[in-house]
Amino acid sequence: MKKVLLSISDELFILVDELSKKKNISRSELIRNSIAHFIECEHKMEIEDRLEKGYKEMSGINLEFAASALELDEKTLKAYEAALTEEICDGDKTRRDL
Length: 98
What we know:
Layout lengths: L9 H14 L3 H71 L1
């Protein structure tokens, strides 16, 4: 294990000392744990940043895909409605002919 000389404010030293006593661990262990936790949080934030960037990039692609699917749905619906209208009109003619 490597040793590091660390300068901290008096206020921070008091907080570290109090917390280490409360947790019944050495100041060194508390500082090691704190550094490890900080690094873990930084790593998670980097992953979240990359995910956010990816979601933003995909949002444009997804919007284009949804718009083209909507356009196709609208065309299909219009064709279906036209076919129904035609069937209804043809049915009315057949009834009138009877």
